[in-house]
Amino acid sequence: MKHMIQHSSRKEDKICRIIDKVLNQVFGKEATLLIYRYLESNYSVKRDEISEKIDLFTKGLEDFLRTGAYAIERKILEDVYSSYGLLRRLELEKAQQEYDFAGQIRLLTRKA
Known about the structure:
Elements: H1 2-43, H2 54-65, H3 68-84, H4 86-94, H5 101-111
C-alpha cells in the first residue's frame, strides 16, 4: 500500500511539474506566480496540490484566463502525453470525447 501511495505521489508530482513548466513557458515567472496566488486565494489550491485538486485547478484557471485556459489545458495535456509516451497518448486521445481536461488528468494518474 505504501509503495502504491508513493507511486501515485510521483505521478502527481510529475503532473504538477508539467503544469508549472507550461505556465512558466507561456506566461513567464511573474504571471505564473500571479496565477498560483489567484488559485490559492480563490480556490484553496496550492501549487503542490494541483493534481490532487485538478477539478478546482481547472475551474480556477478557466475563471482566471477565460477562453484562453483551453489553449493552456491543451498544451499541458500534450506535454503530459509526451512524458508518458505515444501509446499512452493514443489511448487517452480515444477517451478525449468522453473526458474533459480534469477527467483526462485523473485518468492518466490512475492508469499511468
